[in-house]
Every structure is written in C-alpha cells, then in structure tokens.
Amino acid sequence: LDLAWPGALLVTSIHSVNVTEKALRGEVESAADGLKRKLRVVKRLELPETFPCRPGHPEDLYLKGFIFRAD
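Below the sequence we write its predicted structure tokens.
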C-alpha cells in the first residue's frame, strides 16, 4: 500500500473461519491509516452462490475479502 499510487486497486482475501469480515477490513484500514492513506471499498468478496451457507452457521463463511481503491 505504501507504494500504491492514487487510484490503485488493492485486493485482499482470507480463507479462515477464525477471522471475521469486520476484523479483516479493520486490519487493512488500520494499516492504511498508519500510512496516512485512505481506502474505499469497491467490492466485497465472498463465496459464490454455488457454495450455499447454512443460516446461523458463521463457520460456513470462511472465504471473504475486499477490493479497495487507494485514494
């Protein structure tokens, strides 16, 4: 992120049930804040519809991520 020019895309993803979407986003945005950079979410990444998740089972939501644009 330190080398990214304004308008660059940053793609993040994680394959873990132990890291929440909120925690992932918070870590990335905290790193950006530390570098005095702003990020804007362009797209939220998640499992495709062909991978159904059971209601009330957060462990099924193991794949998550974001596409950010650096400002």
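The longest strand covers residues 39-46.
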